[in-house]
Design brief:
Helix content: 40-55%
Distance between the termini: 14 Å
Number of strands: 8
Bound molecules: cytidine-5'-diphosphate
Oligomer: single chain
Number of helices: 10
Shape: globular
Strand order of the largest sheet: 2-6-1-7-8
Largest sheet: 5 strands, parallel
Length: 221
């Protein structure tokens, strides 16, 4: 056990379906979903507001910027707010996505995220998704899942998620963007030795959610 509450860690590379899966698993089990990537994204959005020239960023710029970021609990999930306001749309934008890996390399920023995520799990059973949840943040998680999927399939999912019409060219470009982010995040995207690896390439969302819920029930029962 990690902290007296039941912790499910869901890790995996970009657009592998971690967040949407984690949210659905949390709803089915009555747990709270914590998206650690949303905190790295919120830190990036906060730093961009402070200094738009990312070449000038230091670790201190980002640490100063995150003072305005808080986690708020909704019914089934936590979400970040910046200066008291929800920032969901801003943190999913291309400027944040292009620069988030830079912020994620900063040791003290990682510490800041880890503290916030661990605090969220203190009093509730949680499903936490990210890259290093099962290895670094909750090495004693009750269940660790590592989701993988073919990069083209992940690109297609990301485009579908945006809900705008897409072309072959857009799919090619998104596949390249995802592969580049995989390379930048490779250092912290490693499955824990005791993680259950699920290849979701040929699975529906419902199927992957069911697999995780079944595993969770086996472990908690
Ligand atoms: O868009 P995607 O689902 O791939 O990523 P995300 O979960 O929103 O995370 C955004 C970025 O935060 C990643 O590209 C990583 O650079 C970083 N991240 C991390 O380093 N460690 C985590 N536990 C979660 C996210």
């Amino acid at each position: 056990m990690s902290s007296g509450t039941f912790v499910i860690a869901i890790d995996g590379p970009a657009a592998s379906g971690k967040s949407s899966t984690a949210q659905m698993v949390a709803e089915k089990l009555g747990y709270l979903h914590v998206d650690s990537g949303s905190l790295y994204r919120a830190a990036t959005a906060a730093a961009l507001r402070r200094e738009s020239d990312v070449e000038k960023w230091t670790e201190q710029t980002v640490l100063d910027s995150v003072r305005g970021v808080e986690m708020r609990a909704a019914r089934t999930s936590f979400y970040p707010v910046l200066d008291g306001r929800a920032i969901e749309e801003e943190i999913r934008g291309p400027n944040v996505t292009d620069n988030v890996s830079r912020v994620a390399q900063m040791r003290r920023v990682r510490q800041w995220v880890d503290d916030k995520v661990r605090a969220a799990a203190e009093s509730r059973d949680v499903v936490v998704d990210g890259r290093d949840i099962g290895t670094v943040v909750f090495p004693n998680a009750d269940l660790k899942v590592f989701l993988v999927a073919d990069s083209r399939e992940r690109a297609a999912r990301r485009l579908r998620q945006r809900g705008t019409p897409t072309s072959q060219q857009m799919l090619d470009d998104e596949t390249i963007r995802i592969t580049e982010r995989d390379a930048r995040d490779a250092g912290q995207t490693v499955p824990a030795a005791d993680a259950v690896v699920i290849d979701t390439t040929g699975l529906t969302q419902q199927e992957q959610v069911e697999q995780i819920v079944t595993l969770a029930k086996q472990r908690s029962g």
